[in-house]
Every structure is written in C-alpha cells, then in structure tokens.
Write a structure and sequence with these properties.
Radius of gyration: 32 Å
Largest sheet: 8 strands, mixed
Shape: globular
Strand content: 15-25%
Helix content: 25-40%
Structural class: alpha+beta
Distance between the termini: 17 Å
Strand order of the largest sheet: 8-12-13-20-19-18-17-16
C-alpha cells in the first residue's frame, strides 16, 4: 500500500528516534498522578505542585527556545509549556531541538512531568521538566480547528468515515466520547435500579438451537462437532422464563441480540436489549415499574427527567399516558378493529394506502395499520395497551376480553422503546399460539416462528407462576437520552457495508515527473510551459499524459488562447 508524504515522514521520525536511543513504544509502566480535568477544576489545589500527565499531543506552537503544546488525556485537554533548557540536559539540547520540535507529531502519545501554573493571559498550564515518548503515531489525525468564536473548521464529520474509524472520531470529536460515557451511565442506572429491588442479573445462551422469543429472521451458523444448525439469539425471553420456572422471583439480562434484517438509522443487525421478568406481577404493575425506571434512568444519565430529541422536549417523569391499541387506531383512522376478520383488515389497510400482502395474518395487518397511521403521533412517553391476541403469541389473554392480550408498548417520539406482557403461563394455550405461528410461517411470513420450542413448553408444564416481563431496546433509549437520531451514533462500532478498496495506481517515472511539476505549481500549469519544464521527448510526453488521463488524474482546459493542465486526482 502506497504511503502518503506525511506517513513517510513519520516513519522516518520513528527511525530517527531509535537512532537517538529513544524507544518510541516503551514497555514500562508510565504512572500518572492527575488528569487535566482535575487540574483545571482545582487550580488552587494544584498550583505550584508537581504533576505527571500522559496523553496525545494535539497541537504545538514553536517559539524559539520555548514552546506551548496541547495535551489531551482521558478526561480533557490542557496546555503544556516546554522550555529548551528544562527538558534537555545535553549540550545540543537534543530533547527539545530534535525530539520535541522535529520528531514529535500531532497524535503522538507523550508523558510529561511538571508544575502547574497560570500564564500571563491566565491560562492554566503545566511547566514541563520531563518529557517521555510513549507511542509514535504513524498516521496523521484530521486537524479540527476551533476559532475564537468557537466555530469548528475542517471537522471530521463524514458519518461513514466516523463510524468506520471510531478511534479517530473519539480522538478529534470530544462530544462523541461524552455520548458513550452517558451510555455507561444508563446501564449503571438501570442495573442499580434492579439490584436495589433484589432482582438477579443472569446470562443466557447466544447460540440457540431454536430462534425463539420474537418474530424476526435469525442469523444461522453451524456447530461442526455436533453437526447441527445453531441460531444467533434474536431474544432471550424463553430462557429467562425458564429461570422463573426454576424458582427465581426476578431475573434480568442485558443481552446482545442479532436479527438478519434491514439496516437503517434506527436498526442495526446487532443490538442490545434489556429484558426483566418478575414473578407474581402483571402488566399493570409493570407499567408503573417501567415509568419509574425510565425516570430514574433519565436523571442518572442527564441529571433531569427532561431531554431534547430533535425539535421535541420529552419528559420522562412518571406517570405516562395510557391508550389502548383499539382506541389509538380508531382515533387516527376512524376504523374499529374490534371483531374484524383477516379479510376485513386486509381491505381496510389497502383502503388506507398501506402496503400489505396476502401472507400477512391479522396481527401483522393490525401492526401495519398502527405503524403507518398511529405511532408517529405519540411524542411524549405513552403506553399503548391491550393488543389483539394475534399480535402477541407469548402474551396472556386479557382478563376481560379474550380477543385481546395484556400487553403494552411504550412509545416515545413515534418509536417503540419498551414492550411488556402479563406473560402467558398456560402451556396448552402456549402450544396453540405456537401452532398458529407455524401456520403463518407456512403462508410465507418470514418473521413468524415456524418451529415449536418443545423444551420451553415442557418447562411451562412444570408450572410458571403469574409473571410480567419487560423488554427495552437500550440503543434506541440511548438515542432519545442523548438527542441522536441515528442508532450508529450510540454504537461504538455499528455494522457497515464492506469498505471499497482503494485502487493503488502505479505511475511511470514520466507520469510522476508531470505530477510533481503540477504539485509544485498549485496543481495547474500552462500546457506548453509544463511540457518544456518536463524536458520529455514528444513520444514520452504523449505516453505520460495519456496514462494520467486514463487514471483520471489530470484534465486540460482552455483559458483564452492558452491550454491549462490541472491535477484533479
């Protein structure tokens, strides 16, 4: 792979450091005593005291015998003052004149020892007395500039590059790191809420013999020793319920799930869900539990229950509004789904301009109607309750209406954030629901589960107490709490399409000569002048310019009576 000019220079600096006896990748521990943020927040405590810091060199301002630089550590940035006589003890002042001024580049990791002071203009800084090279960066970082008014210039902002090179994104875009710190705060807040109530965090299999617990297309792999297909987990529900059967009263898991479906701004094939199951509870109890949980999490992440998402101000403070699925559809379409057949629902959906087909059963048709006409209207946290039984094969029938189930989804800004049931614990009813799912799969519904989990039914036959379960999409909740409209912004390493390999172009000596002459003259020259300076024969000139044209590296334009060759690649 061809190296850029900067990459070549950095490798040369690497060699020079070693020639000076400086190991650019030392093995020894480098012990620090403070972070930049602590010093900036507590200057009175640190003034005149010695500190040891480590981080990336993010800027240098060379000023003769002394210079200023910017150091970025794990918690922020701080200015350091480097004087020739303070860090160099040899006659040639090598550490300053050669190492600091010439061989250290933006992005290199260094350690500094010095005292804390304020400059004449009042900036808190570290006066360096010792400098250690900790790691040489061989690729240059994007240089993001911030002017006196706080405006950002030359930002590393292209989403695809940011997601592919998250390590660079985190380095040069400080706000990105804040998002992921908040993600950890969210998990900690939720975990503490559950633990304080005595519920147990558990782990369940990622590789499963049957893809159960949700209607989704799984990833399939193969176990060579057992010679069987296995499925990446689409949900952990059925395993957590087995633990309730086994006698645990409350269990939860933050699970990595995998669904072999589309990718967009709100869906990634690998995502994190939290599911919790609590015995002797129902979906009414779980609604109260959920709104208190999310209020607690919002405060834990942002210090307040109020968040901004796009143009909306969202308040996660309990309690939340509650609307039945039937009433929601009736309100926004005028159509009452109560008692309607599959054929009637199909005709109604078609009449509303919704794209449906003959493979869809009643549950899928109702889901399509609600998704197209209703869910976008719920901005503030709202529980949508009492779903038709065809939509919820793992949910208990409603105590007052056998055509409905005791289920709710929490909608925020038109998106589902949480899903919960009074769990179905009747093994006979559960088998019938599984069989209904198999019939839908045979009709062509690729999201219906076409396999009956006999072991789960066996577990239910041993008896499962009344239980309520809740699932929350952690990535989507994180989007709302950090005002990010794309799921890729809250995942360190979102799934990306394969990166297109850059084709390396090998240039002939004559082609390189023309390119170098153009670069030396602002990437363009008069054609006649360029040809004369190249001193190439007519034959070699023609071959070289033809090759550069084929590589799409040059173009020729007419300016008055002159022809101009321009370097474009």
């Amino acid at each position: 792979m061809a190296l850029s000019e900067q990459e070549i220079l950095r490798r040369e600096a690497l060699t020079e450091l070693r020639n000076l006896g400086i190991e650019p990748y030392p093995a020894a521990e480098f012990t620090t005593t403070a972070y930049s943020s602590e010093i900036l927040a507590n200057f009175d405590k640190y003034e005149g005291k010695e500190v040891i810091l480590a981080g990336r060199l993010m800027g240098k301002r060379i000023m003769g015998k002394a210079s200023f630089a910017e150091l970025k550590d794990a918690e922020g940035r701080i200015q350091v003052y480097v004087s020739r006589d303070d860090i160099s003890d040899d006659e040639e002042k090598t550490m300053y004149n050669v190492v600091f001024k010439k061989l250290l580049d933006i992005g290199d990791f260094i350690g500094v020892r010095g005292t804390v002071f304020k400059t004449q203009v009042g900036e808190i800084s570290v006066h360096v007395y010792g400098l250690t090279v900790l790691a040489k960066a061989l690729k240059p970082l994007p240089v993001v500039k911030i002017d006196a008014d706080g405006k950002i210039h030359d930002a590393f902002a292209d989403p695809e590059q940011r997601y592919r090179r998250r390590y660079v994104d985190l380095t040069v875009n400080d706000h990105v790191k804040d998002t992921f710190i908040k993600r950890t705060k969210l998990f900690n807040a939720m975990r503490s809420f559950f633990n304080d109530k005595g519920y147990l965090e558990v782990e369940t299999p990622v590789l499963q013999p049957i893809p159960g617990g949700a209607a989704a297309r799984p990833f399939i792999t193969h176990h060579n020793s057992l010679d069987i297909p296995l499925y990446m987990r689409i949900a952990n529900e059925l395993y957590l319920k087995r633990l309730i059967v086994g006698g645990f009263e409350g269990v939860y898991e933050f699970s990595k799930n995998f669904r072999n479906e589309g990718m967009d701004r709100t869906h990634n094939p690998e995502f994190t869900a939290m599911e919790i199951y609590v015995a002797y509870k129902d979906y009414n109890w779980m609604m109260n539990f959920t709104e208190n949980l999310l209020e607690h999490c919002a405060i834990g992440v942002n210090g307040t229950s109020e968040v901004t998402f796009g143009e909306h101000k969202i308040n996660f403070k309990a309690p939340y509004a509650r609307v039945t699925m039937t009433d929601a559809i009736k309100q926004f379409t005028g159509f009452d789904i109560s008692g309607k057949s599959e054929a009637e629902l199909f005709v109604a959906a078609k009449g509303m301009g919704i794209d449906v087909d003959e493979t869809m059963g009643k549950g899928k048709l109702i889901d399509e109607i609600f998704g197209a006409k209703c869910e976008g209207n719920y901005i503030q946290p709202t529980f949508i309750t009492d779903y038709p039984k065809e939509m919820s094969p793992l949910c208990k029938r409603h105590r007052n209406n056998p055509e409905l189930t005791e289920r709710f989804e929490l909608m925020v800004c038109g998106k589902e954030v949480a899903n919960a049931y009074s769990e179905l614990n009747d093994p006979i009813d559960q088998r019938e629901r599984f069989e209904d799912q198999m019939r839908l799969a045979e009709k062509g519904d690729d999201e219906a589960n076409g396999v009956i989990d006999e072991d789960f039914l066996r577990a239910l036959e041993y008896g499962m107490p009344p239980t309520s379960g809740l699932g929350i999409g952690m990535d989507r909740l994180m989007m709302f709490l950090t005002n990010n409209s794309s799921i890729q912004e809250v995942l360190f390493f979102p799934q990306m399409r394969p990166e297109k390999k850059q084709v390396q172009i090998e240039l002939t000596a004559e082609e390189k000569l023309i390119v170098d002459l153009l670069k030396a003259n602002n990437n363009q020259m008069d054609l006649g002048e360029l040809k004369a300076k190249s001193e190439l024969s007519g034959k070699k000139w023609d071959a070289a310019t033809k090759g550069l044209s084929q590589h799409k590296l040059i173009k020729v334009s007419v300016a008055g009576e002159s022809k101009i060759m321009e370097l474009i690649g």
